[in-house]
Design goal:
homodimer, 11 strands, Dihydrofolate Reductase, subunit A, alpha/beta, nine-stranded mixed β-sheet
């Protein structure tokens, strides 16, 4: 049974998981401080890290393990809104997007899929969370599905109670503005068991595991 | 540059990392209490775990990441000593050893290699740690080398200062007897930086990273 997982979701001390004002020049809006501790080199495992293996990196390295497909919101793919301009945009990641699996991008404006040589492919679907998840589970072929963000997308899947595992990383910065992860989710913690650890870097890692469904 | 890594090395509160009296019936001797917390299903990544993703499991899951070869002591392979009896012994693991890579077994009694369909192969070499490591690095083909234990073997590699990374798991049990990991290694901590976390299970995870060599 495929699990639906969220990894490396950075949240500020005041609960923001992304900045406002995403533009071409500022992929994460005003929330740069939120991601300054993240070492993206470890997403496919600790082997790609030349530097010491820290607790943070060990935790980050779960990102790619056993994942067969990702679902992301349109805002993670690009800063555009409305109908797609004819600008050749293929996402923020250049010729080698790090996903290595099919990726389903939620948008009200479907367009042609994009295929990369490294196994990543982008598919644009106008679908509700449950529908998109069915597609992703099929594409994942027995592996797990990652909900890749941004936070509004994660929140939608949490609202629909479709998340089995959520790795939240609390960053000790105060943003004051941005996209709130937990908005409208009062009491969500009752559906999960939560284990937390702090690391010497100041980050707190929370592992939210969905309680067994009745 | 390949790193030399040790993962999931369980040590009791009194410093023992294996039991005495290993026999066919008791692969880990008298140290059963030491391994009772270990969930071996996660060694190839958190994806193979149906149960919740705990901090312990996240840490254990580094075991197989980016590993291209293992070196183990003879005692980890089997309970025999001296010349190999003609008993068809192929290790403790049956037809599907979990290693999935070449494994070099240190023994004064070389014998023919054993190849399994899942990618695991056992090679028996009469070699000093440095020599065995050269072979393993070549076999690993750019990936890292894991020193798989037992503790006497890890200790030999620590004495020769060949370890780059060591994940020690301190288990709150008192064994009173067994194989001491740190015997003869006074001051070894000066060569490493060490980061520790405790988890709710009572385990303590220590990440020992070799300081940059001058």
């Amino acid at each position: 049974m495929a699990k639906v997982r969220v990894h490396n979701l950075f949240v500020s001390s005041d609960g923001y998981a992304a900045g406002d004002y995403v533009t071409l020049e500022k992929p994460i809006g005003d929330a740069v401080a939120l991601f300054s501790r993240f070492d993206g080199r470890v997403i496919h495992g600790v082997d790609t890290v030349v530097d010491p293996v820290t607790v943070d990196r060990a935790m980050f390295s779960m990102w790619g393990q056993g994942i067969g497909a990702e679902i992301m919101g349109r805002r993670k793919f690009g800063p555009q809104s409305g109908p797609w301009p004819d600008d050749g945009w293929q996402g923020w990641w250049g010729d080698e997007p790090p996903f290595l699996t099919p990726v389903f991008i939620l948008t009200h404006y479907p367009r042609e899929s994009i295929q990369f040589e490294n196994g990543t492919s982008f598919h644009f679907v106008d679908a509700a969370p449950g529908q998109a998840l069915s597609m992703a589970i099929q594409a994942a072929d027995g592996l797990d599905v990652r909900i890749g963000g941004g936070p509004a997308t994660v929140r939608e899947f949490l609202e629909a109670d479709l998340i089995d595992f959520l790795h939240v990383v609390i960053v000790p910065v105060v943003l004051g503005t941005g996209v709130r992860l937990w908005e409208g989710l009062s009491g969500a913690e009752q559906r999960f068991t939560v284990e937390s650890i702090g690391s010497v870097s100041g980050l707190t890692h929370q592992l939210w595991n969905r309680k067994p469904r009745e």
